[in-house]
Amino acid sequence: MYDEYDDIFKIYDIKTSTKGWSKYQKNDVSKTNQLLIYKKYFGKLYDIPMSNIAIEYYIVKRRLYENAEFEQKRIQKYSPANGSVSMKKMAEYISTFVNHAFDASGNYKLDAEYKKNLGTNNCKFCEHKGTANCPESANI
């Protein structure tokens, strides 16, 4: 969205969550880097200075506390740090991943070792659960 008065583009990402984001989810770089990447490439694509782009998450709570003694909000807003230091860390994070996962030709490095994060919560909705491609069932 564009605010003509302040000359700011605002990128929103709407997420759903059972009861909102805790401080741990707000500090998870795999979540916050998503909007930082959007900001970087939106600015690059349309030649917009980073200072003219703001980012914000809207976390829509699917469940509210029953019989709460206080008013509850269905939508939680969160704006992650997105200054030059955060943008630089995000770029390094992405660059490190790409360099470890791909060779110079853009092919997957099959020998790259990444710790698989297996477990009941992570596998719950996985399309590979119980198939030959499932690392957990193949004991990889």
Outline the structure in words:
By secondary structure, this protein is α+β, with helices and mostly antiparallel strands. The chain has 2 domains: 2-109, no CATH class; 114-140, no CATH class. It contains 4 helices and 4 strands, in the order ββααββαα. It has helices at 23-26, 29-46, 84-101, 120-123, and strands spanning 2-3, 8-17, 53-61, 75-78. It has a 4-stranded mixed sheet with strand order 1-2-3-4. Strand 1 and strand 2 form a beta hairpin. It is flat. The N and C termini lie far apart (45 Å).
Short description:
By secondary structure, this protein is of the alpha+beta class.
Q: Helix- and strand-based class? A: alpha+beta
State the helicity in percent bands: 25-40%
Beginning-to-end CA distance, first to last residue: 45 Å
Quote the beta fraction: 15-25%
- Mean pLDDT value: 87
Q: What is Rg?
A: 19 Å
Order of helices and strands: EEHHEEHH
Order of strands in the sheet with the most strands?
Answer: 1-2-3-4
Q: Low-confidence runs (pLDDT<50, min 5 residues)? A: none
Question: Which properties best describe this structure?
Answer:
140 residues, single chain, 4 helices, 4-stranded mixed sheet, alpha+beta
Q: What does the secondary structure layout of this molecule look like, with pairings?
A:
Layout: E1 2-3, E2 8-17, H1 23-26, H2 29-46, E3 53-61, E4 75-78, H3 84-101, H4 120-123
Parallel strand pairs: 2-3
Antiparallel strand pairs: 1-2, 3-4
